[in-house]
């Protein structure tokens, strides 16, 4: 009676012994493992009360590591995990930090999600006890909570940039074990970062971003720990930082994604109203700088690019998801590292061509798992398009890849690979880049609209298990269609005659109206209809007026203005479609006041061709600003800004409509210092050049 409980202890101890045998009989081994796991679950389930916490921990860990979630094993496994979970609820005080971290990690890995169990386990991780936890135990716990979708009650408690709860302490709030658990893990990471391994650091950061919890102090602290602090420091190691060489490719991708997501969270649906005065893309840029500092976030992402390019085998070791996550993060924050994106494009081309050669669609009889998921393809193209970084060979290769995987002779249907928002983003990206490969353009239209007949609406909704196209997808398709009509009419693709009636989620006239400014996590594109007048725009308008340039502000272009050869392009375009900041309608001359959201910040030189790219990290950044109860970031030019993709697309579309567009970058106007004569000279010279 070794366990002191009627033999249960001995049985439990038996599950702690591990034996590894080499074998080449994969199918037989899988069946034997399945049978063994079933027998273990059946035998252990009625005796779980006799198992010590560590033995329960080991049992769950073994199931998770052995990949028990095959269909035949699912029922028994779920019963076992539920039984262990109830033991945690009943005996939570007996579980050590290691037991909590490993057991929750096993649950999340095995996709067993029971909120009561997770909350009971997380209640053992408190700030008072956190010093006794090892970093892995803390990171495993918050990673499991995030993976299971168990969200803290107080998501704004750590947000010193946006939240109205700034300065509040958890002690003054009703106790929530999940919030307390996240507080414990983040406090320890800030206090002893050198004890955390790279995977543990990225798991804590990823977990916060995954559940929508912002923590500017932590993210800035970690950035300083990794790439060095700003200003004068006594310890040179603090000036240089720990570096990123210890991060795996997945770690690099998750690290970049976590920082970008932190800046995006305040502008997603369902979050609190941000204190930052700007919205949309500029709001994300400003939030990132307010949280981390412009100098520091640029340096961090420069180091991320350098690490991906130069360390541990370079980009060949990155999986598709790692490349996609990293590229998405750069684009979300408006940061372009040319050498990184150039090498990423080459890497994508090489991998996809290899897949195409080994999987010719016309000869395939058995499905082979495609190496790139739909989301990864869409995010990658979206990143290149948003940053206005052209890679024509990559776009053509992606088109061939998509045709191979889910074209007419592919093994997969379009809806098995892509969601509709992803297809819309792909089409939008092609339009931004001015490249329209026939295979992928027709594939996206078919995937989004079927044959285009109204009778297809119900079938398409059932196919994708959604309520129709999102408003962002609808606006994207309008811009795509206009670009195709002017630049690739030979494709012969068009929107349904009365689009978007019936095709959108709301099924009403709202789909024709001005789109929401809110960006969601589907990497949606931004509208090219921007109806907000800034102080900068008003000042420029006044100066132009003094120079005799008659105009109106916020001129809106709609369906009635979209003419080609004297006829409307399509009757389905909305009444408000494009806008021009300052417009002389008679002469069709417009002035666009380009603020920071119209640009990307280039982190490296075009001439950086050496084996180890050294990015620009010494450029001066902007500074904090406030007005009333709103805060923001005032960007300056470091001479390394270029127009982003949406701005370039809008310029082309307006050009097709016969408009001459003049662009005034924000830093040029600010450089005039408010001097009236200088402003007049500047505007006069612009008008003389353009008219």
Describe this structure in words.
Residues 589-685 form the RAP domain. This is RAP domain-containing protein. It contains 27 helices and 11 strands. With 691 residues, it is α+β, with helices and mostly antiparallel strands. Among the domains are: 363-512; 535-603 and 640-690, Endonuclease, Chain A (3-Layer(aba) Sandwich), CATH 3.40.960. A hairpin with a 4-residue loop joins β5 and β6. α4 (74-90) packs across α6 (115-122) and α20 (420-433) packs parallel to α23 (471-487). The chain is globular and about 90 Å long. Mean pLDDT is 85; it is low at 1-13, 507-526 and 608-619.
Mean pLDDT metric: 85
Percent helix, as a range, is 40-55%
Number of E-type strands: 11
Low-confidence stretches: 1-13, 507-526, 608-619
Q: Give the oligomer, counting copies of the same chain as homo and different chains as hetero.
A: single chain
User: What is the C-alpha radius of gyration, as a whole number of Å?
Assistant: 28 Å
Strand order in space, largest sheet:
2-5-6-11
Q: Alpha-carbon distance between the termini?
A: 97 Å
Q: Major sheet, described briefly?
A: 4 strands, mixed
Q: Indicate the overall shape.
A: globular
**Helix/sheet category:** alpha+beta
Number of helical elements: 27
**How much strand?**
5-15%
């Amino acid at each position: 009676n070794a366990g002191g409980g009627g033999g249960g202890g001995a049985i439990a101890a038996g599950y702690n012994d591990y034996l590894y045998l080499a074998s080449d009989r994969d199918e037989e081994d899988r069946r034997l493992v399945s049978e063994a796991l079933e027998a273990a679950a059946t035998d252990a389930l009625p005796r779980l009360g006799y198992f010590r916490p560590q033995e329960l921990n080991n049992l769950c860990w073994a199931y998770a590591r052995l990949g028990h979630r095959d269909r035949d094993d699912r029922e028994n496994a779920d019963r076992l995990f539920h039984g262990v979970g109830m033991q945690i609820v009943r005996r939570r005080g007996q579980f050590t930090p290691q037991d909590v971290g490993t057991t929750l990690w096993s649950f999340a890995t095995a996709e067993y999600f029971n909120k009561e169990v997770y909350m009971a386990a997380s209640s053992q991780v408190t700030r008072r006890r956190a010093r006794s936890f090892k970093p892995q135990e803390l990171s495993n716990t918050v990673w499991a909570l995030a993976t299971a979708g168990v969200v803290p009650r107080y998501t704004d408690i750590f947000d010193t940039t946006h939240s109205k709860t700034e300065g509040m302490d958890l002690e003054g709030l009703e106790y929530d074990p999940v919030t307390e658990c996240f507080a414990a893990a983040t406090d320890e990471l800030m206090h002893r970062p050198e004890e955390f391994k790279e995977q543990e650091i990225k798991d804590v950061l990823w977990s916060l971003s995954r559940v929508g919890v912002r923590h500017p102090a932590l993210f800035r602290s970690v950035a300083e720990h990794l790439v060095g602090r700003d200003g004068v420091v006594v310890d040179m190691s603090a000036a240089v930082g720990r570096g990123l060489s210890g991060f795996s490719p997945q770690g690099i991708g998750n690290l970049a994604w976590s920082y970008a997501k932190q800046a995006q969270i305040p502008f997603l649906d369902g979050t609190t109203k941000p204190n930052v005065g700007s919205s949309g893309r500029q709001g994300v840029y400003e939030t990132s700088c307010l949280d981390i500092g412009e100098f520091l976030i640029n340096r961090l992402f420069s180091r991320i690019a350098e690490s991906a390019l130069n360390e541990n085998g370079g980009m060949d070791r990155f999986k598709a998801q790692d490349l996609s996550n990293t590229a998405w993060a750069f684009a979300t924050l408006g940061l372009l590292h040319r050498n990184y994106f150039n090498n990423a494009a080459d890497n994508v081309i090489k991998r996809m061509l290899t897949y195409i050669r080994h999987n010719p669609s016309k000869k395939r009889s058995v499905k082979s798992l495609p190496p790139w998921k739909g989301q990864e393809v869409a995010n990658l193209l979206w990143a290149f398009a948003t940053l206005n970084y052209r890679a024509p060979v990559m776009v053509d290769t992606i088109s061939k890849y998509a045709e191979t995987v889910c074209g007419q002779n592919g093994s997969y249907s379009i809806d098995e690979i892509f969601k509709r928002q992803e297809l819309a983003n792909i089409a939008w990206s092609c339009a931004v880049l001015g490249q329209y490969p026939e295979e992928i353009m027709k594939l996206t239209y078919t995937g989004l609209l079927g044959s285009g007949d109204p009778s297809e609406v119900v079938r398409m909704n059932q196919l994708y298990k959604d309520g129709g196209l999102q408003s962002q997808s609808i606006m994207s398709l309008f811009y795509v269609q206009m670009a195709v009509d002017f630049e690739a009419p030979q494709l012969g693709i068009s929107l349904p005659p009365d689009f978007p009636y019936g095709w959108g989620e709301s099924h009403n006239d709202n789909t024709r109206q001005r789109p929401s400014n809110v960006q969601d996590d589907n990497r949606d594109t931004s509208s090219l209809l921007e109806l907000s007048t800034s102080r900068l725009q008003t000042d420029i308008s006044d100066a132009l007026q003094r120079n005799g340039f008659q105009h109106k502000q916020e001129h809106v272009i709609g369906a009635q203005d979209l003419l080609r050869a004297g006829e409307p392009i399509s009757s389905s375009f909305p009444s408000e479609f494009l806008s021009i900041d300052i417009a002389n309608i008679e002469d069709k001359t417009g002035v666009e006041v380009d603020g920071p959201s119209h640009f990307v910040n280039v982190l490296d030189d075009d001439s950086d061709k050496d084996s180890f790219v050294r990015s620009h990290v010494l450029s001066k950044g902007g500074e904090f600003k406030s007005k009333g109860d709103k805060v923001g970031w005032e960007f300056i030019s470091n001479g390394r800004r270029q127009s982003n993709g949406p701005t370039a697309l809008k310029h082309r579309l307006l050009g097709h409509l016969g408009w001459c567009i003049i662009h005034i970058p924000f830093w040029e106007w600010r450089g005039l210092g408010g001097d009236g004569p200088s402003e007049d000279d500047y505007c006069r010279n612009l008008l003389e050049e353009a008219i």
